[in-house]
Specification:
The protein is of the alpha+beta class. It has a domain at about 35-120: SH3 type barrels (Roll). It is about 25% helix and about 25% strand. It has helices at about 1-30, 105-115, and strands at about 35-40, 45-50, 55-65, 70-75, 85-90, 95-100. A hairpin with a 5-residue loop joins strand 3 and strand 4 (about 70-75). Mean pLDDT is about 75; it is low at about 115-130.
């Protein structure tokens, strides 16, 4: 009789766990979960954060300043050093993580860029020639 009771409680716990797991998957599927990650070196990345098994930012973008001082969004995968995949974050380097609203223009921008196959910005660095001064005649 006691064995039947233990089996009943075990099966009940398994059933409740399955129901909770399905509910969790159902309610989180389709949510965008985009965040801003501010690092201790002053860089801010925006993207989709996952925490298991380690901190990972996918669909990441950052902003670069052009010659005129304008901030230009740059997809991380299109950076000139050609990173191959997501950003794995060191939790000791993170100052804060802030969630972005699903209605944020930045989230809409990231979602739109995620579907693109062409780079957002040129993938080659813009190299400016050094000014040369005429030789001294002293």
């Amino acid at each position: 009789m006691k064995m039947n009771k233990n089996i009943f409680y075990f099966l009940l716990a398994v059933f409740v766990g399955i129901i909770l797991g399905i509910g969790l998957i159902y309610f989180t599927k389709g949510k965008k979960n985009y965040v801003a990650v501010f690092l201790n070196n002053g860089v801010i990345y925006f993207g989709k954060l996952s925490t298991f098994p380690r901190l990972k930012l996918t669909n990441a973008i950052f902003f670069q300043q052009d010659e005129s001082g304008q901030l230009i969004p740059q997809r991380f995968v299109d950076a000139f050093w050609a990173p191959a995949g997501p950003i794995y974050l060191n939790s000791n380097s993170i100052i804060f993580i802030a969630p972005l609203s699903e209605s944020s223009p930045l989230v809409n921008f990231i979602e739109g860029q995620r579907r693109r196959t062409l780079p957002l910005q040129p993938s080659q660095p813009q190299i400016q020639p050094r000014p040369t001064s005429p030789p001294s005649t002293q």
